[in-house]
Design a protein that fits this description.
single chain, alpha+beta, 6 helices, about 240 residues, 5-stranded mixed barrel, hypothetical protein yedk fold, globular
Length: about 240
């Protein structure tokens, strides 16, 4: 599951990335900061939707209520077209893009009391978009995930639905096609099946992110942090008891 995303950019950079975006009047400029968004936050997140051929940047909350009291934050790519009884199949035409500068995922290491957070982003891209689905009636969205590639399986190695990752796409053209009103199911399936090669990602450990406290080194949440005795990826049997 993906529960943490980074938006350390400005609204202007998003509109430069996808020219012609219409800005929702409700969208404040308080997003222009180094933000770490979590699913439990009540604040809305800037999401790109397309309605009647017009692409707009609008604030939506993370998480779609799929049943009374049940909220889904992630939509599994495999169910959007292949499970015609699923809630995601019914929402397949309510597509959106989630602009991010990166995401966070946690790695479990045997013998460590707490998981180690990693920051993951696409190489050579300061801003990119993750496909999602949205609910107009709830003003909310869900981020699409898929089975993880080799690196993400080693990072996201425990917890709810382990070994998965967001649906990272290769380039902006694929992202824009996700919004296209003329997108056919065959092309949609190809996008949903896409697996980003591990070599196209940049990733590194960061300090604890789910806290309001300042890092001990005074750096931003998305900057690298050197954890003493951190074993390499794939070597998760370290028996040290840390933290």
């Amino acid at each position: 599951m993906c529960y943490d995303i980074s938006f350390s950019t400005t609204i202007e950079m998003v509109t430069d990335y996808l020219p012609g975006l219409v800005l929702d009047p409700q969208l404040g400029l308080d997003y222009n900061m180094n933000r770490h968004f979590q699913i439990r936050e009540e604040k809305s997140y800037p999401i790109i939707i397309c309605h009647d051929g017009i692409r707009a940047l609008t604030p939506l909350k993370w998480g779609i209520e799929v049943a009374p009291g049940i909220v889904s934050f992630n939509a599994q790519s495999e169910r959007i077209l292949n499970d015609k009884k699923s809630r995601w199949y019914r929402r397949r035409n309510s597509r959106c893009l989630i602009p991010v500068t990166g995401i966070y995922e946690h790695r479990e290491i045997k013998g460590w009391k707490k998981k180690v957070p990693y920051y993951v982003k696409l190489k050579n891209r300061s801003l990119f978009c993750i496909p999602g689905l949205y609910s107009a009636s709830q003003n909310s969205f869900a981020l699409i995930t898929r089975p993880g590639n080799d690196i993400m399986r080693q990072i996201h190695n425990s917890g709810d639905n382990p070994y998965r990752m967001p649906l990272f796409l290769a380039d902006k053209q694929l992202e824009e096609r996700w919004l296209a009103s003329d997108l056919q199911e065959a092309e949609m399936e190809a996008i949903l099946d896409y697996e980003l090669p591990s070599e196209n990602m940049e990733y590194y450990p960061v300090h604890t992110i789910r806290t309001q406290k300042e890092r001990p080194d005074k750096k931003q949440k998305d900057e690298p942090f050197n954890w003493p005795d951190l074993p390499p990826l794939g070597k998760d049997s370290n028996e040290l008891s840390l933290f």
